[in-house]
Automatic annotation (TrEMBL):
The gene is lysN_2. It comes from Clostridium tepidiprofundi DSM 19306. In the C-terminal section; belongs to the class-I pyridoxal-phosphate-dependent aminotransferase family. The keyword Cell division does not apply. This is 2-aminoadipate transaminase. Coiled coil: none annotated. Its EC number is 2.6.1.39. It is an enzyme of class 2 (transferase). Signal peptide: none annotated. Residues 12-80 form the HTH gntR-type domain. One of its GO terms (molecular function) is DNA binding. Keywords: Aminotransferase, DNA-binding, Pyridoxal phosphate, Transcription, Transcription regulation, Transferase. The keyword Cytoplasm does not apply.
């Protein structure tokens, strides 16, 4: 225990000094990777501080990636993320790749519809019609919840008027919706659950809120219910973040049975569900039926988030959020504090676009286009790389997730080898709280590529993996 001794400076918070001291011990390897840290009671007694101080110190270590809590066992030391340097490089690479440079690559990293399919001429007519009707007022932001006409259209066209327009908050895309929900709901050191793996953007938001993040493995019909309930029994959970359809990155969708069970658990254990309804418009498999968590929610437990940007055009940042009544006011305040308003002109244009039936036409068009791309992608995978990977056919969406079977490759090495040959993939290390858990996984998105590029890119990946 002697190595844990600290000569305290009582002008600074004690828990910060404790966490900093333990971090130094871990970095110097005086505390080994996976070594169990002293119990809260034992360390508080040794340092002569109260137990809450040790709890706060351990929580800080966990938030910063230097410790991991194992339920019923204790807290264990963890080396700082070995892939942190790579994550930073990956992010900078895409910031520095101009559209002209990106044209030289076969880009499997896309998560949104290709801009080629955006109905520019039609949308231009809609914008002109809005400007003719509203004039300068089209640019004026008035309503805190968003343009009333758009909220009415969402209720009528997407929810059969089962939602009140005043329960709908217009946001600037799903990412902002997650951020708003987190600010309204999650406080520092609140416990939340995410799928394992999960969406990078959501992980970033929850880390920024300094929440304690628990992961539950996701299967092809949704998360492991038994593992979920074990966490719920032992921890006070604030919320569970989920992507109900074609989860990013795995492509998995929830079964009706699991949705109902999770809603029952939410009521039993008093937590809320943040449902990110991701790409549910793009269903290619007739056996998959659409039914959101929110549509099954009888206890007002679901915060529902929907983006229009993913399948329409990313530059038109629009989506909406439906909050439980308990958090409705906080959500609105959070939205105002985030950016005050979402483009009034675009809200009016989207409202008119939906009311003219153009949204349904566009979605039907995209389904035909992407069904063909998806089918071709699966064909190329089966012809070229199925001996080197395991993968799941999601039956919808834009992405396919792979496990590498070749022991000589991890996802970071594969990324660099692919990039050298002008192919871009998304390594699995980006989708896990502990990035090393994603070492054998990678994601390919086909939304931005034509058939020739898909075939060429898959053959290059196969050539690399067979080495």
């Amino acid at each position: 225990m002697d190595k844990y001794y600290i000569d305290f400076d009582f002008e600074r918070p004690l828990y910060i000094q404790i966490s900093k001291h333990i971090k130094c011990l871990i970095e110097k390897n005086d505390i080994k990777e996976g070594e169990k840290l002293p119990s809260i009671r034992k360390l508080s007694s040794f340092l002569d501080v109260n137990k809450d101080t040790i709890i706060k110190a351990y929580n800080k270590l966990q938030t910063e990636g230097f410790a991991v809590q194992k339920i019923g066992s204790g807290t264990y030391a963890k080396k700082r993320d070995i892939n942190l340097k790579f994550k930073n490089e990956y992010s900078k690479m895409f910031k520095n790749l101009s559209p002209d440079l990106l044209k030289d690559y076969i880009d499997f990293t896309g998560e949104t519809a290709c801009s080629t399919y955006f109905p520019v001429k039609i949308f231009k007519k809609v914008l002109n019609e809005v400007l003719d009707k509203y004039g300068a007022e089209a640019f004026v932001y008035k309503e805190g919840l968003g343009f009333e006409g758009l909220r009415k259209s969402i209720s009528y066209c997407f929810w059969d008027e089962k939602l009140d327009k005043d329960d709908i908050l217009i946001v600037s895309g799903a990412q902002q919706g997650i951020d708003i929900a987190s600010k309204a709901l999650i406080n520092v050191n609140d416990n939340i659950i995410v799928e394992r793996p999960t969406y990078i953007g959501a992980l970033s938001v929850f880390r920024w809120r300094r929440a304690n993040i628990f992961e539950v493995e996701i299967k092809n019909d949704g998360i492991d219910i038994n593992a979920l309930e074990e966490i719920l029994k032992k921890n006070r959970i604030k919320c569970f973040y989920t992507m109900s359809y074609f989860q990013n990155p795995t492509g998995f969708s929830y079964s009706l049975e699991k949705k109902i069970k999770i809603l029952e658990l939410a009521q039993k254990y008093d937590f809320y569900i943040i449902e990110d309804d991701y790409l549910s418009e793009l269903i290619y498999d007739d056996k998959i039926e659409y039914c959101s968590f929110k549509s099954l929610d009888t206890n007002d437990r679901v915060i529902y988030i929907k983006s229009f940007s993913k399948i329409f055009l990313p530059g038109i940042r629009l989506g909406y959020l439906v909050s439980p009544k308990k958090f409705k006011e906080n959500m609105q305040k959070s939205k105002i504090n985030t950016d005050i308003s979402t483009s009034s002109l675009m809200q009016r244009a989207l409202d008119l676009y939906i009311n003219k039936g153009l949204w349904d036409e566009h979605v039907n068009f995209l389904n035909k286009i992407y069904y063909d791309k998806y089918t071709y992608m699966i064909k190329m995978i089966n012809h070229n790389i199925k001996d080197y990977v395991e993968f799941y056919e999601p039956g919808g969406g834009f992405n396919i997730y792979f496990k590498i079977l070749n022991d000589d490759f991890d996802s970071v090495k594969l990324f660099y080898e692919c990039r050298r040959r002008k192919v871009l993939i998304t390594p699995g290390v980006l989708f896990y709280k502990n990035s090393s858990d994603g070492n054998k996984f990678f994601r390919l998105g086909f939304s931005q590529l034509d058939d020739n590029k898909i075939e060429e890119g898959i053959k290059i990946i196969a050539d690399i993996l067979k080495c």
